[in-house]
Amino acid sequence: MTDPVPGTGPFQHDRVGPAAVRLDGFGFRHASRRAWAVRDVDLRVEAGQRVLLTGASGAGKSTLLRALGGLLEPESGDVAGELTVDGAVPDRRRRPVGVVFQDPDSQLVMTRAGDDVAFGLENTGTPPALIWPAVDTALDAVGFDLGRDQATAALSGGQKQRLVLAGALAPRPGLLLLDEPTAQLDPDGAALVRAAVTRAVADRSATLVVVDHDVEAWLPLVDRVVELLPGGGTVEHPPGWRPAPLRMPARGVHTPGAELLAGEAVGFTHRGSARPALAATDVVLPAGRTLAVTGPNGTGKSTLALLLAGLRAPTTGRVVAAPALTAGLRRPELPPHRWPAVELANRIGTVFQQPEHQFLTGRVRDELSLGPLRSGAGAAQARATAEELLERLGLAALADANPFTLSGGQQRRLSVATALATAPRVLVLDEPTFGQDRETWAELVALLADQQDGDRALCLVTHDAAVVTALADDVLHLRSPVPA
Amino acid sequence: MSAPLSLGPARPVPLSAVNPVAQLTAIVVVTVVLLVSGDLVTSAVLLTAELALLPAAGLTRPGDVLRRTWPLLLSALGVAWVNVAFGSLDGAEAWLSGATWALRVVALALPGILLVASTDPVRLADALTLHWRLSTRFAYGALAALRLVPLLAAEWETIRLARRARGVDGGRNPAAHVRLLASTAFGLLVGAIRRGSRLATAMDARGFDSGVARTNARGSRLRPLDGWAVAAAVAVCAVAVTASVLTGAWSPALS
Question: ipTM of this predicted complex?
Answer without folding.
Answer: 0.84
